[in-house]
Design goal:
This protein has 4 domains: 201 residues, Beta-Lactamase, CATH 3.30.450; 131 residues, PAS domain (Beta-Lactamase), CATH 3.30.450.20; 55 residues; 158 residues, Heat Shock Protein 90. It is 51% helix and 22% strand. It has 20 helices and 21 strands. The protein has a 5-stranded antiparallel β-sheet, sandwiched between helices. Strands 11-10-14-13-12 form a 5-stranded antiparallel β-sheet, sandwiched between helices. The two termini are 52 Å apart.
């Protein structure tokens, strides 16, 4: 039946070519489809990562608001701060950039507000009498926790979000402590201006508890987007966060593969048509190969002595087999055993492999193939099994019938054992990598939560100490005032250490890379450091800095930390001059940031990149000694290196390398 099928294909080359084309086309386009799904999956993961990042930013911003509200509520419940409201509110507001207004309500009526200017109209406004505010206010009273309401139109104008926590005195409801975050502050907190220009569409929405209607924070899209969309609920304010990729590029990535694979399928069809058209050429090649093998028979014995494989020659007409002496060395059988006939060899094949080996061999001999290869297990004279590979060349007569099979047997037991051990080691490495990835994610989340929770008692300590100093200033001597100042300074330094440690832990997560124009980045940094630049009468010089493929936020932190150090440690008697340049060094850009500051002695060059390593007292120069350690981590996460060249009183040059964009694309 099989021979008839082969003859049919040889006699109908067009059908043979068309069949080959269709079969190859289906298989290759299936691979193209799988590639398409892979790109789609990558896009989906990008959207999920962006959504998780936004959630973290919102949690980070609003946790500080938690602390502010809780602090105000605690002070009112325990100390009745009516007379000190302005001082307390001012202190809280100065320590939290994400809060615009602080309120204290007695019952449902707003009793105090800070700042008062521009907010006079809300004094006396009773939220419990306003149907649009009452529902969420009552939810806060019933739950006894912070509830964020909004966004809605504020009484004093504008759109905002209000966070409230109930205050209880003498086991009864007294009023609320509240903070107001204007919408523009909230948008700045999540870096909406950047999101608006990015590849993502972002929307915050909420179901109005009174009307049941869906309300949107942000402008609705002006066009339809076709990318992957993901939504999740934020319990902080019962909001819904939606992130969508504006445009999917998955099909664009596979269009070239689709075309090339179609062309490949056509070539396969043409090739099969060509082969089916010229069977005589194949027969001539077989005859030629037979003649070559006949001439090489006299060299056969010498070849068997020169190889570690076991050579064999099987006469298919009389079923006689000749095997070289290497068989005895490899498998332990005597010449009289394995040279008698093929059946002896067949009996030593592992029972589970025997049927497969014989079937494959029979099909090959009955077909038109000239080569045979098979892997199986063979029992040695000691009863153990070896993994072997048998390879042979088939000699056929003029009618195409196989008459002789000549080949070699190779023992691959050691290779199989090594493969098994290597596979097991790869599995262990993959498992360890997954465990490390999970551990890193948990540690990062812990760092976020722990840093914010640790800051809350520090703020309370600082607030109470400032209140004590103001309240009892006339009763304290100089020593008492000095002790209070030492405590406040210690708490502030501890808070800065916590913030720096958070930044250091976040440096591991460089986020999504993009093309960053370093000239634009320097413009941003000069605006951020404008005050310090003016104080040092500093000049920052750079020209035509390159674009790099990197995560923008860590890049800003890298350049800003180094420039801040140059400004901080500048000489007091001359204006600061900072020169930034980039050098093309093959697959990398080599950057140098040079200053004319106080310099660093050579024995401290490596020390400056270690965490908490300071070379000067805190009284002379502020800081925690983490800045350059963060820089080192950012550079290394981008595949580069960082080092310094400096001498005391001779300035400092910080060098670091970053991969070029084409090098990043090559991986």
């Amino acid at each position: 039946m099989k021979q008839k099928s082969l003859k049919f294909f040889y006699k109908n080359p067009i059908i043979t070519g068309l069949f080959g084309f269709l079969l190859t086309f289906v298989l290759t386009q299936y691979l193209t489809y799988k590639d398409f799904l892979l790109y789609q999956s990558s896009e989906q993961q990008t959207v999920l990562d962006q959504k998780n990042l936004l959630e973290k930013k919102i949690v980070y911003g609003l946790r500080n608001s938690f602390s502010a509200i809780k602090t105000l509520a605690y002070l009112e419940e325990n100390f009745d701060i009516n007379g000190d409201f302005v001082e307390v509110a001012k202190e809280i507001l100065q320590s939290n950039q994400n809060i615009d207004i602080i309120q204290l309500l007695e019952g449902g009526a707003i009793k105090y507000v800070y700042p008062l200017e521009g907010n006079e109209s809300v004094i006396g406004y009773n939220i419990l009498e306003d149907p649009s505010r009452k529902t969420e206010a009552m939810q806060a009273i019933e739950s006894g926790r912070v509830i964020f309401a909004g966004p809605f139109e504020l009484k004093q104008g504008g759109i905002g979000i209000v966070g409230r926590i109930p205050i209880f005195k003498e086991d009864g409801f007294w009023g609320f402590a509240a903070v107001v975050i204007r919408l523009e502050t909230f948008l700045k907190m999540i870096d909406y201006e950047h999101l608006e220009k990015s590849e993502f569409y972002v929307q915050f929405s909420k179901t109005n508890p009174d009307t049941g209607l869906l309300e949107h924070f942000l402008p609705l899209p002006q066009e339809e987007y076709n990318g992957f969309e993901s939504s999740s609920s934020l319990s902080l304010g019962k909001w819904n966060l939606t992130v969508q990729l504006k445009k999917s590029t998955a099909f664009n990535h596979i269009i070239v593969a689709l075309i090339l694979r179609t062309i490949f399928s056509m070539l396969i069809g043409f090739f099969l048509w060509y082969l089916a058209s010229i069977p005589a050429i194949l027969e001539a090649q077989v005859a030629k190969q037979s003649r070559r093998l006949k001439k090489s028979n006299e060299r056969f014995e010498y070849a068997t002595m020169a190889t570690s494989d076991a050579i064999w020659d099987w006469n298919l007409l009389n079923n006689q087999v000749y095997r070289s002496k290497n068989f005895e060395k490899l498998f332990g059988y005597s010449a009289s055993d394995f040279n008698s006939n093929h059946n002896f060899w067949d009996s030593k094949i592992h029972p589970e492999d025997r049927e497969k080996v014989n079937k494959n061999l029979q099909e090959t001999l009955e077909g038109k193939e000239n080569f045979w290869k098979q892997e199986f297990r063979l029992q040695k004279s000691n009863g153990k099994y070896s993994h072997i590979i048998d390879k042979g060349i088939i000699l056929r007569n003029a009618s195409g019938k196989a008459v002789r099979l000549i080949g070699a047997t190779q023992d691959i037991s050691e290779i199989k054992a090594n493969e098994k051990a290597l596979f097991k080691m790869s599995e262990e490495l993959l498992k360890r990598a997954q465990e490390l990835e999970l551990s890193n994610a948990e540690l990062e989340q812990f760092a976020y939560v722990a840093s914010h929770d640790l800051q809350e008692p520090l703020r309370m300590i600082t607030g109470f100490l400032n209140l004590i100093e103001r309240k009892y200033n006339s009763l304290l001597d100089e020593k008492g005032k000095q002790y209070i100042q030492f405590s406040v300074d210690g708490a502030e330094r501890m808070r800065q250490i916590i913030l720096d440690l958070l930044e250091y832990s976040r440096a591991d997560n460089i986020g999504q890379k993009e093309t960053v124009d370093l000239n634009e980045l320097m413009t941003e940094i000069k605006l951020l450091e404008k005050k310090l630049i003016q104080e040092r009468d500093a000049q920052i010089i750079y020209h035509n800095l390159p674009k790099v493929l990197a995560s923008k936020s860590p890049m800003r932190q890298l350049f800003q930390n180094i420039i801040e150090n140059s400004l901080k440690y500048s000489s007091s008697d001359v204006p600061a001059v900072i020169e930034i340049s980039a050098e093309d060094v093959g697959m990398f850009w080599k950057f140098s940031i040079k200053d004319n500051g106080i310099g660093i002695s050579k024995e401290h060059h490596e020390k400056v990149f270690q965490i908490f390593q300071r070379l000067h007292s805190k009284d002379k120069y502020t800081g925690t000694g983490i800045g350059l350690a963060i820089c080192k981590k950012i550079v290394e996460k981008h595949g580069g290196e960082i080092w310094i060249a400096s001498e005391e009183n001779m300035g400092t040059t910080v060098f670091f390398t970053l991969k070029k964009e084409e090098a990043e694309n090559l991986g």
